[in-house]
Amino acid sequence: MRLDQLRKFALSLPQTTVVKQWGECLVFKVAGKLFFLIALDGEVIDGVVFKCAPGEFESLTEIDGIAQAPYFAKRMWVRLSDLDALPARELQARIKHSYDLVVAKLPKKIRVTLAGG
To answer: Would you state the pLDDT for residue 72?
Structure first.
């Protein structure tokens, strides 16, 4: 996927914001909590980081091009250094799943607001 496609998809998730943080990283957040990160080298994607469930972590990190995310690994985050390691639809599903995992840990009041009432 290209940068504009990834950015558009992530921003399509409810209440998502994006900030440039940690140098050249686009950090996507919901209710102030990180769920997806795009590391950039100029305008070129250098890798993406997303959260996964504990049961998915091992199988994901066995795929060439996917490894533990530095600084995030203890919390079940992976870094995709090769975007071809996952088909575009699966990457989108993983980003959405990361979003859902982060939302599930938010306080109930915020989850209700995100759900639209």
So the answer is: 76
